Amino acid sequence: MEDKKKSDLFENWATIPNLLSFLRILMVPVFAVLFLKGHYAWSVFVLALSGLSDFFDGKIARRFNQISALGKLLDPVADKLTQITIAVVLYITFAKAEDKLVKAFSWIFLIFLLKELVMIVGGAIMIAIGLRPSAAEMPGKVATFAFYVIMILIIAIGPEIGIFGQFIPNWLMIILVCISVVLTITAFCSYIPGVRRQLREKKEKKLQEQGQEDSQQEEQ
């Protein structure tokens, strides 16, 4: 059974969308190293390439019917690794900021890291007990879009690191990040009803099976 699952996972894996997803994963450490070494322009370039590959891999997969089980796994993994890395490098950067207000609020970036870690662990537990992690709903898509827009704005024109100039004042940056945090928490909460529904259905199915077994034993 386990071998069958592995074969299903790697069935039709050699596709352009999967190659793009692999490249996105490889871009994560490249972005982190460039950013932490202060090469912000190059790090944004790598991040832009990652975003473009994310856009095109989905388009290509649907257009040429190259959707695969491995692709469904790689795409969210690449997304989560990218978001975690962006949050971590910004936390490290602003934790060393000269401005006291920015430094005091640098911890807020760790909320994104915490959310993604909870999602990863929660998804693994769900798979382990036979449940299916829910696909991203509209709140999740909105939160992801807002996250990337706000983080790119911070890197491009934010305080301390703006590669095109520091046009966003400290207080506005904090407000924007707080908005992204609220959207992220809202998106996280939107998954809870789906998980509860699956748990309820699993419990009902188990009770039905138990009832059928009891009925068969009584007939015997």
What are its keywords?
single chain, 220 residues, mainly alpha, Four Helix Bundle (Hemerythrin (Met), subunit A), 9 helices, 0% strand, elongated
Describe the overall structure.
This protein has 220 residues and is mainly α. It has a single domain, classed as Up-down Bundle (Four Helix Bundle (Hemerythrin (Met), subunit A)). It is 79% helix and 0% strand. The protein is elongated and about 80 Å long.
Order of helices and strands: HHHHHHHHH
Percent strand? under 5%
Low-pLDDT stretches are 1-7
Q: What is the CATH topology descriptor?
A: Four Helix Bundle (Hemerythrin (Met), subunit A)
How many distinct beta strands? 0
- Domain tally: 1
The percent of residues in helical segments reads: over 70%
Query: How far do the termini sit from each other?
Result: 31 Å
Mean pLDDT: 83
Please, what is the CATH homologous superfamily? CDP-alcohol phosphotransferase transmembrane (TM) domain
- The appropriate CATH architecture is Up-down Bundle
Which sheet architecture does the biggest sheet show?
none
